[in-house]
Amino acid sequence: MARARLNSGNTAEAELPKAKLNKTSIKNLRKLLTYLRPYRSKFAAGMFFLFLSSLVGLAFPALIGALFNAAQGKPVNHWLPSTLKGIGLLAFAVLFVQAFVSYFRVVWFVQVAEKSLADIRRDTYFKLVTLPMNFFSNRRVGELNSRISADLSQIQDVVTTTLAEVIRQLILMIGGITLLVVLSPKLTLALLLILPVMIAFAVFFGRFIRKLSRQAQDKLAESNTIVEETLQGIASVKAFVNEAFEASRYNKNLQEVVNIAVKGARFRGIFASFIVFCLFGTIVAVIWYGLVLVSHHDNGFEIGDLTTFILYSLFIATAMGSLPEQYANVQKAVGASERVLEILAEQGEAISIQESDNQIKQTIQGNLTFNEVCFHYPSRPEIEVLKQVSFTAEAGQKVAIVGPSGSGKSTMAALILQFYYPQSGELLFDGKSAAEYQLTDIRNQVAVVPQDVLLFGGTIAENIAYGKRNADSAEIEQAARRANAHQFITSFPEGYDTIVGERGVKLSGGQRQRIAIARALLKNPSILILDEATSSLDSESERLVQEALEELMKDRTSIIIAHRLSTIREADKILVLDKGIIAESGTHQELMSKQTGLYRYLSQLQFENSSLASL
């Protein structure tokens, strides 16, 4: 049922939240509209053509009315041709101008909107990927993805369509009402007494019906989830003889869908009846009263003028009916702009958008020091993860970090990579504080091989080259050979061009691990972090990966985080971490000689467990 709630939430999420229009929200929207500046000349031209197109459109009803008057030999406006032919040709000329300016209006608005939105997407994405890790630990990936997709799409719709449509409808409405008053003040007053009330009722009723439709969609999503869960767990359903229960649960949900749909149908029927009666009733009333004025020759009001009046009335009704929806779209865009601006306002890491600016400027030999480091995660200040941690790893040394789960081992790796910064104490590289190096200098010279390797959805070659973007095919192959990966790669029909699938799902754990090692070899780091790199592999895969790791660790500082103590016996130094404190340190032999030491206890525990597993 939890998944059902999730799915129904996704359905409702399609309706983006609206923000109130106030000074702050308008100011936020204006900040995003600054992205229009590089394209302001084309935007201004599009706005001019929009005004021109709207004004030309207002001339069309007058021309139609003039055609009726001319056909009956009635007088026409002095600014129009006096003959039927002349008015018809002028009408076609107006239509041609309307079509011409409309084309350029649409094309220029879309060009400006697409280019400016691409700029916003680029800046938002780059800001996202350069934000500190703490930002991501407090937010869901789906939420952040929505900022770039749904939120920016909403803004795009407003810039490309809604903004132009609102201006166009306002021109048509204001211009239409003005021209109606000029044609017949009496008929205009009668129309304006009826039309706004009818439109207001239609908008209110329409929202209520849409709400019922969303409820029906949510319930239908729940029923689909029941089917999905039942079929995925069909073995459990059959094993517990719960077929009847699942059928009853599904039927109950379907009945709720039916009830909501029937309720919605009743209200839609009432709404449709109301619209038909009021719409055609208004048209009949206008025509009836208009014909009364024509029969009384009220201020020279003719049948052609009545035709013009009806067309302008339709223009005004359409404009009034569409403005609430356009206003709602603007509200959604304002809400979306606030969420996008929240990302753009965040303080990012000191990384340039130009790759050339992120090259190594200060070389690190590989000496690493933790000096009285204390750390807690910003989201959990009450839990101190590391307490006064101090140690030194000389260049080329292998330093292993072991300890129970939750003792702070992976946190130390995150601090080395500068994903987080200690609250007190400092990290030193080659005797200099980490703060004296550019962030990109440290990360360019530190590589990590994690337990759960994430591969991108491209080819094997592209994933290996992620460690060195300008590597050629020979360098990629050499790194793969050193990582014991070349043999299995060439066994695929496409070789290095094999697509690994999303997150590397087409490869086994050992294969993914060796590609990660090849990637690290290609990077050629000064400091290497192995974060439980072999803990989840079978024996054969572990052997191949261990051989590749030995090659990778040659002549470089290696920080080895491990649960399996058998893999770190040859380390130059072993740090035993317990509850954020270095409880013991030394070589394997030194630590095993301590009768009551934690390392000796953990080692004996693993030996006993492995012995029991082999029985």
Strand segment tally: 10
Number of helices: 19
Uncertain segments: 1-15, 611-615
DSSP strand content? 5-15%
The class by helix and strand makeup works out as: alpha/beta
Strand order of the largest sheet: 6-7-8-3-9-10
The SSE string, one letter per element, is HHHHHHHHHHEEEHEEHEHHHHEHEEEHH
Largest sheet, if any?
A: 6 strands, mixed
The gross shape turns out to be elongated
Rounded Rg: 36 Å
Q: What proportion of the residues is helical, as a percent range?
A: 55-70%
Distance between the termini: 42 Å
Q: On the 0-100 scale, what is the average pLDDT?
A: 80
Draw up the topology in text.
Blueprint: H1 2-13, H2 23-33, H3 40-71, H4 84-129, H5 133-137, H6 141-183, H7 185-232, H8 234-239, H9 243-295, H10 303-345, E1 368-375, E2 386-393, E3 398-402, H11 409-416, E4 424-429, E5 432-433, H12 439-444, E6 446-449, H13 460-464, H14 473-482, H15 486-490, H16 509-523, E7 527-531, H17 539-553, E8 557-561, E9 573-578, E10 581-586, H18 588-592, H19 598-614
Parallel strand pairs: 3-8, 3-9, 6-7, 7-8
Antiparallel strand pairs: 1-2, 1-4, 4-5, 9-10
